Amino acid sequence: MSTSPSTPPSTPPYPIGTPGTPWGAAEKAAWLARQKPQRSYAEEVLAPLMAKLPAQAELFQYGRLDYGRLGLGSYPLYAVRSRAWKADRPVVLVTGGVHGYETSGVHGALQWLTHEFDRHAEAAFNLLLLPCISPWGYETVNRWNPDALDPNRQFKQDSPAAESALAMACVAACGGRVDLHVDLHETTDTDNSEFGPAKAARDGVAFDWHAIPDGFYLVADTERPVPEFQRALIAAVRRVTHIAAPDAQGRIIGEPLQQAGVINYAKRALGLCGGMTDARFVTTTEVYPDSPTASPAECNQAQMATITAALDYLRRA
Prior knowledge:
Elements: H1 25-33, H2 41-51, E1 57-66, E2 74-82, E3 91-96, H3 103-123, E4 126-130, H4 135-140, H5 162-173, E5 180-184, H6 190-203, E6 217-221, H7 227-238, E7 251-252, E8 255-256, E9 262-265, H8 267-270, E10 281-286, H9 296-316
Parallel strand pairs: 3-4, 3-5, 5-10, 6-9
Antiparallel strand pairs: 1-2, 2-4, 6-10, 7-8
Helix pairs in contact: 3-9, 7-9
């Protein structure tokens, strides 16, 4: 079903830098000069947040990204939390747009806020939603921030990525305790055509190519895999869209399949967003928006279905 080739294609060297030599300041500046806004964070993310919130939701600004030193603008960062936050309730964290180019992570979060937030906030949970952690990446359809850093490898102490540091500070300011964390992502064809080659060029290494799977899958935490939890989410999403199959080696993006539609990553060791809390239940969604059989609406629905299924599981746990 996958439209991605099963063997690495022959690709020219990345147009910036010298193969085998890590980038310096000049190469990073050349890369940044190539990045242009393609859509509006203010219109597509902030405007819906400001227009009308669910009754149980409270909008607040948790920081501002200021890239004036690079000749760029600044971006206010907003989160949504339960208006009636109660100390005895489980805390649920939903994050989107850590990689700004992964569109359904942002819009799936916003749609879930509109359609599902009140029901779950009223029922049993303290909810905290950060719908777009990397707004510059959203506008430029980019995996990195302007410093050529991947925010999803920088969730760690003394993080050099402001996107990651401010998100962690927001969670800490809301009490720090988290029982469930759902981090919304996509795996796209551009991971092989642009973002993977750029990373290899930046680091002065060979590009580690993997076939892009056609379909939805989850990334569990190696330290907290909770297979029954992941299985419940896959069952829910299967009713919305198709689940990715492993490659001929039984892997998805190079990682061994743990069960249908699930692989594991060591999230804390890698500095991933999904590793920033001690939540009992944690998962990262991976939607494939380039599938010939999945529409943007379907991708958003898969993200929403995952969040709702995760909350249903937590309620029963």
